Amino acid sequence: MTLLNKHLTLLLLRFSGSQVSQILKLLKKREFQSLESNKEIQQKLIEKLLLHCYENVPYYRNLLAESEVVVNNKVYFNNFSRIPILTKDILRDNFERFKCRDLESRKWYFNTSGGSTGEPSIFIQDQVSWDHGMAGKWFFSTFTGKDLGDKEIKLWGSETDLLKGSIGFEAKIKNLIFNRILLNSFKMTEEDMEKYVELINQKKPVLFEAYVQSIYELSKFILNNNLKIYSPRGIITSTGTLHPEFKETIQDVFKTKVYNRYGSREVGDIACSCERDEGLHLNIFDHYIEILNESLEPCKPGEIGEVYVTALNNYAMPLIRYRIGDMASPSKKELCSCGRGLPLIENVIGRSNSMIKTENGVFDSAAIGSLLYFKDPKKHQVFESIKKYQIIQKKKDYILIKIVPTDENIWSLEKKLIEAKLKKALGNNVKFDFNILDDIEPNKNGKYMYTISEVE
């Protein structure tokens, strides 16, 4: 059946006029080329995009000339860092001027971001950018050993994706052809998760793709209920930060390797870890990534900064030096030992709105989560009272914490110690309110947000 699915997938792509299979073949050809060769290809793609923007996108015409990035129709890439940063507010306020002049000749459509940093932003993409994005996604899947047509189960929750992938005759046919089964991360009750476990064991997928938080919750359910679960060839997590404790739990439960994929709806999949797990490989044929500090200078290896993305294949509404809202750090290694000629980033820390900021400093959500998880890290003792939590920072000195307790009596005993640990780390001036709930629902996109900061 797998071979048939592969041929049907390729036939469907060819019939629809999509270039996905050709782009995927090109990515596989370049995968183990030298880094120098691949960077040369990337620079040519950047220069081609910049000329297009200068000639066809009103917003960029004067901006690129004033920055001396394009002079007399020639690109001066050394001046690229002079291009002003693009924010969601700028995109929203100048929306019409970001449209390329030949938009009507393209197969374009509206899309929106997931909204994890606040109000979702609206932007335009076209068929070419979609093809490159889909090819990049499938390319990263090959890191796990998955081939086209191999069985896949996807635990997903974005309302748009979920509706497109599970409702309607056309969507059902596509899922059948792609050999893909969708599970709904909107519905993650214990009864639902028990059904998901049964389905995974029955269907035996080659690849399991899921939101980080959703598969972490499923893994904890399997572990706590001592259930048996089929081990796929690999698990790809995305749409969330893969904290070390999440990764360890998922790998222990499923007895397989977890691959960390990073991307966004605005620009598609950006990077993914490989079998060596020495960082995340960048798809430099679809993006140009900058990790910058507060002074907008490139971060040093290991230093945490904000991610700025230039999407290389969306000519309908080009995004150059787009502030995506994520924090990451450059890799200390130029190349991975796997031999791929694709540069690395060390890790993605998470959304800037998932960083807690107090007078004592800035704290990653993983660090805060460990305070709620470990009673004594040296002795590997954990708190027993917390089943699920969500941290919401309202002000610099005020944090609301939603708690689903395993047992309210145990919670009442552990609460004072947890609060004392939080105050010691974040500051004695910080006030904490604990809200005890029966459950914490995912947001409207089906994501479990463990840490949310409303502080600018």
In short:
With 456 residues, the chain is α/β, with parallel strands linked by helices.
List the helices and strands and how they pair.
Elements: H1 2-16, H2 20-30, H3 35-56, H4 58-66, E1 70-71, E2 74-75, H5 88-93, E3 108-112, E4 122-126, H6 127-141, E5 152-156, H7 159-166, H8 169-178, E6 180-184, H9 190-203, E7 207-211, H10 212-224, E8 234-238, H11 244-254, E9 258-264, E10 268-273, E11 280-282, E12 287-292, E13 305-311, E14 322-330, E15 344-351, E16 356-358, E17 361-363, H12 365-373, E18 374-376, E19 381-382, E20 386-395, E21 398-405, H13 408-426, E22 431-436, E23 451-453
Parallel strand pairs: 5-6, 5-7, 7-8, 8-9, 20-23, 21-22
Antiparallel strand pairs: 1-2, 3-4, 9-10, 10-11, 11-15, 12-13, 13-14, 14-15, 16-17, 18-19, 20-21
Explain how this protein is built.
This protein is an alpha/beta fold and 456 residues long. It has two domains: 2-349, Rossmann fold; 355-453, 2-Layer Sandwich (GMP Synthetase, Chain A, domain 3). Helix content is 36%, strand content 26%. It has 13 helices and 23 strands. It has helices at 2-16, 20-30, 35-56, 58-66, 88-93, 127-141, 159-166, 169-178, 190-203, 212-224, 244-254, 365-373, 408-426; strands at 70-71, 74-75, 108-112, 122-126, 152-156, 180-184, 207-211, 234-238, 258-264, 268-273, 280-282, 287-292, 305-311, 322-330, 344-351, 356-358, 361-363, 374-376, 381-382, 386-395, 398-405, 431-436, 451-453. The protein has an eleven-stranded mixed sheet. Strands 22-21-20-23 form a four-stranded mixed sheet. A two-stranded antiparallel ribbon has the order 1-2. A hairpin with a 3-residue loop joins β9 (258-264) and β10. α2 (20-30) packs across α6 (127-141) and α10 crosses α11 (244-254). It starts with a helix and ends with a strand. Residues 115-119 and 158-166 have low confidence and may be disordered.
